[in-house]
Amino acid sequence: MRTGKTFSGGSIIIYLSGAIIGFILGFIMKRSRFCITGLVRDIYLQKKTYNLVIICGIIAVQSVIYYAMGHAGLIRIPSYLPPFSLLAVGAGSLLFGFGAVLANGCLSATLVKCGDGRLMGWIILAVFMIVGYFMSAGTGRHLTRFVRSFFVVSDDLVLRRSIRAVPLWGAIFVIVCVLMWRHARTHRPAFQMPARYTGLRHLLCEKIWTQEAAALCIGILAGVTYLACEPFGRRNSFSIATPILSWLYTPLKPVEIIGGCNPFDTVIGWGSFFVLGIIIGSFVTAKISGEFTVVRPAKSIVVKGIIGGVLMGIGAVWGLGCYISNGLVGTAQLSVKSWYALLFLMLGNWLATRIFIVPQMRD
């Protein structure tokens, strides 16, 4: 049975809200060159353990906002999260992390590529949509249901609903901010290209934002998104995989959908226009900065990208989410499933890095 909710009155407001927040995220990611796949990869490849601080920064600032608003009564903290399969989420997240390296970026990075002219982004997006639909609403949904039947456990953590989560995340946020401030002070670039513009135009059209600035902006935006979605009944923040697939679910009207981290997004709505907004935000940012260029990929990159898109399609459905919805959003909500998924996302990333990237560096 299909889940989700369709809207008649107020649909324009819902779509516009999603598109605006997606546009801002696309702008931030393009302006900062932010890619969580690259951050995780370089923890192993270049021993940049500091990247863990960047990831924790996004989670911490978002979580402080989420729990503060939740206990203030502005949004609702769900009293129940559905159980999950250790096998499906573990295997799916491993496949997704592995595929993200082959695709040179996860789904959010793929959307940014679509906007800035890289044709590889559209190829990966098309492959992901076909495979994701097959595994969640096509014949492959039977295999998905079978895999999800093993080792099912609860996703109930008492701390997730407790007021104690606010000071806990607040303390983590302070520690992370101190670490990021110290790192930014001691790792300033030795050389910078001469600026063509000044003031706001330089900041928005030319300056490459630091990872620290990107982390704080993304975390704040993700936190605010809970409040933006609450009036529409969508109690979640960023989500990428299911909203992308909603562009197929709605016109094709499958009999059954097995999969997805947010049932609300299985029909065209807020999330659908959120992912569209990321593409538009990337496009506008690339155009105003003079970076938009249509890039045709080499055949070897296309092959890897297609394989990566297939693995991410399977992985997102089995793992109930991607790097964004599990690794950055669910973790902020203290979901056991999401922290478990993040572990396997990182393991899959590092395994693919070890197999495909490390040997190239030695040659």
Report a brief summary of the structure.
The protein is an all-alpha fold and 363 residues long. It has helices spanning 11-32, 36-45, 51-71, 86-102, 107-116, 119-136, 141-147, 165-186, 199-205, 211-229, 241-252, 270-288, 299-318, 325-330, 336-362; strands spanning 84-85, 152-153. A two-stranded antiparallel ribbon has the order 1-2.
Structure notes:
About 65% of the residues lie in helices and about 0% in strands. It is an all-alpha fold and about 375 residues long. Strands 1-2 form a two-stranded antiparallel sheet. The termini are far apart. The radius of gyration is 20 Å and the shape is globular. The longest helix is centred in the last third of the chain and has 27 residues, at about 335-360.
Q: How would you classify the quaternary structure?
A: single chain
H/E series = HHHEHHHHEHHHHHHHH
Largest sheet report = 2 strands, antiparallel
Mean pLDDT, all residues: 90
Strand content: under 5%
Structural class, judged by helices and strands?
A: mainly alpha
Can you list the strand order of the major beta sheet? 1-2
Which residues sit in consecutive blocks of at least 5 with pLDDT less than 50? 1-9
Number of DSSP-assigned strands: 2
Helix content class: 55-70%
Number of continuous helical runs: 15
Distance, first to last CA: 52 Å
The backbone outline, from C-alpha atoms, is: globular
Radius of gyration, in Å, reads 20 Å
